[in-house]
Amino acid sequence: MSTSTHEAPVSLYDEPGPRARRAIRLWSVVAVVVVALVIVLAGLQFGSHGQLDADRWTPFLSAGIWQYLLIGLWGTIQAAALVAVLGGAFGLVLALGRLSRNPVIHGVSTAYIEIARTIPVLLLIYLMLFGLPQLGLNFPLLWKLVIPLTIANAAAFAEIIRAGILGLPAGQSEAALSLGLSRGQTMRLVVLPQALRFVTPSLVTQLVSLVKDTSLGYIVAFTELLYRGQVLAAYNHFLIPTFIVVTLIYLVFNGALSTLASRLRRRPGKRSLAEPTSGAAPIVGVPVTDGPTRSARSRSARNAKE
């Protein structure tokens, strides 16, 4: 009787080899040098025009200005959270629809994803702002931003989730089906939990892009960070310092999300399919064996006799 061996855990992110690591280090150094050079040149240019004078930065020591900007950041977080929840749920439905064996569901889901990925978000926002009100559909400012972003990001979430599902070994579904689970139960109880876990870093990265897209809220006059920055710059007439501060807030917030995504990619247990693991979690329907398999023990015994 043959025994099954463990499958290594799936990962969508294979560890780079020595050549790839050298290339990553090289281009990282080049990128840091280029960014540092741009910052220095920009600082010299700003300084030559008096934009770095102390009197232009003193107002930003006031707690009132920071409170004003942080209210805008809270608006950004609210919009991003709504889009993440709605877009994630809709994206899950689209991913399952694109994997469906029903040709109608598959065709509709595929068509939506391909069309939504090609339409600019700005065009959808203008449609919400100028087109729908003429048809009698006038949404609150928040939803004039959330709905277009949800339409666009749902397609991106769908492709990420679909990639995670397709990246799982076929043995996961086959083992669950052999135990008597239906295809729906297999997808819900076995496939989706693992797929979502493996694509979590990509979902967080998409969230970073989503937070940046919320800056389009200034078009509909929604109270988000960039809109507050524009209003503040018009009030204090310190355009460059105001937008530098707003940029730094975006850098800190999105940098924290990017760091989270990087840590999730490097977390223990995210290995490639080709990498063997001795402490791998058992797969549904696959018997667990301690030590070498029976065939391996038989070969060892024959070698010992010889």
TrEMBL record:
Amino acid composition bias (Basic residues), ranges on this chain: 296-306
Ranges annotated as spanning the membrane: 26-46, 66-94, 115-133, 238-261
NCBIfam families noted in UniProt: HEQRo_perm_3TM
UniProt-annotated location(s): Cell membrane
Organism taxonomic ancestry: Bacteria, Bacillati, Actinomycetota, Actinomycetes, Micrococcales
GO biological process, one term: amino acid transport
Full protein name: Amino acid ABC transporter permease
PANTHER family: AMINO ACID ABC TRANSPORTER PERMEASE, MEMBRANE COMPONENT OF AMINO ACID ABC TRANSPORTER
UniProt xrefs under SUPFAM superfamilies: MetI-like
InterPro entries named among the record's database cross-references: AA_ABC_transptr_permease_3TM, ArtM/GltK/GlnP/TcyL/YhdX-like, MetI-like, MetI-like_sf
Domain named ABC transmembrane type-1: residues: 73-261
Entry's Gene Ontology molecular function annotations: transmembrane transporter activity
Family statement: Belongs to the binding-protein-dependent transport system permease family.
Principal localisation: membrane
Gene3D superfamilies from the UniProt entry: MetI-like
UniProt keywords, alphabetically: Cell membrane, Membrane, Transmembrane, Transmembrane helix, Transport
Organism annotation: Subtercola boreus
Single GO cellular component term: ATP-binding cassette (ABC) transporter complex
Membrane-related topology note: Multi-pass membrane protein
Region Disordered: start-end pairs: 268-306
Pfam families according to UniProt: BPD_transp_1
